[in-house]
Amino acid sequence: MKMPRRRFPAALLTAVLAAAVLPAPAPALAAGGGERWTTDLSRVDGDDVNVRHTRAGLRLADPRPVAARPPRSAATEGTFLAAPRTLARPATRVRAEITARAAAGATVEAQVRGWRTGGWTEWRDATDGAVFDRPVSRVQARLVLGTRRSGATVEVRALRLTADTADTAAAVTAATPGLTYRVYATRVGLVGELTANGHTIVPRDHFVALPSRRGLAPPNTGDYTVRVCTTSGSRCEYAPVWDVGPWNTRDDYWNLSAVRENWKDLPRGRPQAQAAYQYGYHGGRDQFGRVVLNPAGIDLADGTFWDGLQLSTNAWVDVAYLWTGAGPRGVVGDGPLNIRAGAGTAYAARGLAARYANVPIQCYVTGQTVAGPYRTTSRWNRLAAGQYVSHAYVSAVYGGTVPPC
Question: What is the fold, at CATH topology level, of the domain defined by 16-170?
Fold first, then answer.
C-alpha cells in the first residue's frame, strides 16, 4: 500500500543559507579565505524535477496544489540539482547565500553533500553552513522549492557558495558503519508517476523510498542504496533510494538524535510512523497532521516487493543503510541481477541486485566464467555471507581494493 509522501518545511525564507555545487573556471577566493563560486540556475535538465528557469529566476514548473494532479502528496515541490564541483583543495564546510523572493506559504531550502574516498555523505540541511567531520574533495548542492498553498510562488535569483575549513570539533558524524534496522515495508505501486528524484515508475520497478531526502539518490544512480531482506534472511534485494516516503519526509530515523531532522526523542532506528501507529506518538499523526494508518518505515517498488523479496503482502523487513558503512563498493551496471548462494549460476538465487545499486564487496572468489556487459570473467564478488554476484555485471568499484576471500 502506497502512502502519501514528500516533505515540506513550513517556514518562508528569503535569504541566507549554506550549501555547495558546480564545475567552474578558476576558483575565486572569498574574504577570509575559502573557495567561492556562483551556481548557474539556468542549467535545468533531466536531473531536475518540476522546476523551470525564467528571467525572474528558478521557480516551480507546475505550482498547482497536489489535489489537482497526481501523485497525491502533502505539498507541491520541485528540485534543482547542481553539478558536482571539484574543489581546488579539500574543505570541511560549505556555506551558501540564496537570493530569493517567496510568498507566504512557499519555501526554498538549500542542501549539500560531500564526496570522499568511500562515497557521498548524506545530504545536509544548509541553514547555517554544512560542516563535515572529514575533508571532502567534491561538493554538490540542490535547491528544494515548494508550496502548500495555491498561488504561493518562490523565485530563486542567485545561489552563491563558499567552501572552506571549519573547526572539525563542531562537526557531527551523520551515522556509524553497519546500520541495520527492522522496519515495516509497504508497496509503492503508482506505475507511470514520478518519484521524488524524477524517475518515471515502470512495471516491476526496482527501487525504494525512505522518509527523508538525506538519503535520496539522483536519478540513474545508487549513491544511496539499501539492502532489504526478509526477516528470515532467505531473500534480499540491493536497491537504490529514488523516492521519499512513506508518510513523513523529514524522518531520517537511522541517524543519531543529534543529527536526526525531527522526532529527536524517539529511539534510533524507530520510524516516526511506527511510533505514531503503535504508541500514539504525536497524537498518532505524521508531520503533516494525517492519521497514520500503518507503521511503515520503507516503501518498496513493485519489482523489489514481488520479485526481489517475493512478498505477497506488507511485511516487516531488515534494512541495511549501506552508505553508512565502509569499504569497497561495486556498482551494478546491469540488472536486476540475481544474487547467488555461490560462485556460479547453478547455485540458488537468494534475491536481486537492482541496476545502479552500490553494493558492499567483502572479497572475491574464482568460480564459473560468465560473459557479461562489462567483461568475461570467472571472478565472483561476495556481498555478504551466502550472497555472490558475477563481476561481469559490475561496472565500477570504488572505496578501496577488494581482497581475495
Answer: Jelly Rolls (2.60.120)
